[in-house]
Amino acid sequence: QWAVVLACVCTGAEARNPIVPFVGMADPHAHVFPGSDRVYLYATHDNSPNASGFGMRNWWQWSSDDLVSWTLDSYVFPNGSTPGLGWANTTGNTCWATDAAMRNGKYFFYLSAGSTRVAVVTSDHPNGPWHDPLGHALLEHGETYDPPTQIRDPGVLSDPVTGEFYIVFGTFNYYIAKLNADMISLAETPRHVTVDDIWAGQNGVNRTDDKPFLHVRNSTYYLSWGAFYGVSHSVYGPYEFVGTFIDPAHIAKDFRMPVDPAKPWYEQLDYKDRHGAFMELHGQWYFSTNDLSHSLDKASPNSYRDTVFSYVHYYPNGSIAPLDISAQGVNEHNASAGWIEAEEYFKLSNGRKGVHLALDRFEVVLQHGSRVEYHHVALGAHRALRPVVLQLRVRRANPSASSTSARVRVVVTAQGGVGRTVTDCGLNAAAGDGYSIVDCALGVPPSSVVRLALQITTAPRRGGDVVHFDAMRIV
Predict the structure, then answer these.
(1) Taking a C-beta distance cutoff of 8 angstroms, is the pair 94, 79 a contact?
(2) Is the per-residue pLDDT at 80 higher than 60?
(3) Which residues pair with 472 in a beta bridge?
(4) Which range has the worst mean pLDDT, 55-64, 334-343, 372-381, 399-408?
(5) Per-residue b/e over 185-194, b at no fewer than 16 CB within 10 Å?
(6) CB of 357 within 8 A of CB of 468?
């Protein structure tokens, strides 16, 4: 067991990507298990920044309460020190991609034991200690499948639609199988999954990759592989190819990779090895993924990778908006940099994300009693010493209404939890569909880094939307 707190060494208060830089954290799959708000991340471990190929000698597991500070909780070794897993020690450098699940109070850590087998270790706790209940592979012999596949890169789905658990795996040819209640055996023969009309991909057209992952939103199944994805109304597919959620225009300059003009856009390095996972926490979706841009291995950046987090936003048709990838990461905000986007919250209750389609801007749609929170808001030392004003950019939910009686209660708490201020302000935005700026005097903040909680009050209680919240800034 390990418990080492590692927070990134940053040049600014808002910089949190990579989440733990220069340690070789790769292939991240983050989960929030039922009954807990803590995020548990299961990953591979690139061993050396001087490698010419993958050198991965163990798996490891991390956790965080806020997606900012991360604790290294446990390792799994294939060399016999993890009970029952000694059989997996083939070359000593092939501890490949992972995933995890929780069922009936037990935790299951699925491991690519080399490039062609999947193992599973279990624990009574999400951070171990781990042991292998089987003493052999859960999945292997992909050469016997029709069509054949390399069995690796497991992804486990806890399906909110059916209540079942499924495992997806494979390389270029994907397979899905329902898991038994014990989570260490299959309830059915794995089924081949098809993806129709793949018109772009890191490996060219009509090809997927390894690294499959499943998530569900609004009863739609999303099958992703790196930066590309498809959707289906059945976990077994067929999946309809949609495209990519990576757009170089949304990647900060210092996170861009070199461009090869001889290759098509979908084979560029910005899209390469985006092995990752989708996760929902407090009404917010996130994507954790590999990033090569800050690799210490300049000759072979794919051999020593970092992990970055991004917010995930969905358009009304269910497609995924391009992810923003930058040093800011998630759940930290620099008020000195200007406007803070409303949809980049940490917690939201009794509200939802929306889109101003004419402006292609995401918003937060608030109702009576809605509460939205932003943590780790860095004001700057000079703002902590004087009264400040919170400016909210909002528009009416009903553009034709003559007025709105909505008010917002703003609670400002020191990030450490000591000291707070409470202010009530009106939200009488101008008529029409455009945005208005509403000022809310906050007084003197309790510290230079705060949490902001906004709650709609004294709005009509008959239900319905009250205001569309676009962004905020502190002046």
Answers:
(1) no
(2) yes
(3) 340, 392
(4) 399-408
(5) eeeeebeebe
(6) no
Q: What is the token pair recorded at 221? A: 């199944």
List strand residue ranges (DSSP E) for 104-160, in order.
106-113, 118-123, 155-158
CA 412 from chain centre, in angstroms, equals 26
Characterise 175 by phi-psi region: left (phi > 0), alpha (psi -120 to 50), beta (else).
beta
Residue 278 has pLDDT above 50, yes or no: yes
Residue 384: its pLDDT value, please? Answer: 67
Yes or no: say if 77 and 2 are a contact pair by the CB < 8 Å rule: no
Q: How far apart are CA 411 and CA 420, in angstroms?
A: 7
CA gap 433, 438 in Å, rounded? 15
The number of angstroms, rounded, from the C-alpha of 36 to the middle of its chain's C-alpha atoms is 17
User: Rounded to two decimals, what is the model's pTM?
Assistant: 0.95
User: What are the residues whose beta carbons fall under 8 Å from the beta carbon of 374, sequence distance 6 or more?
Assistant: 333, 340, 344, 345, 346, 451, 452, 453
The position carrying tokens 């406007």 is 339
Residues 111 and 118: their CA atoms lie apart, in Å, by 5
Arithmetic mean of pLDDT, 355-371: 93
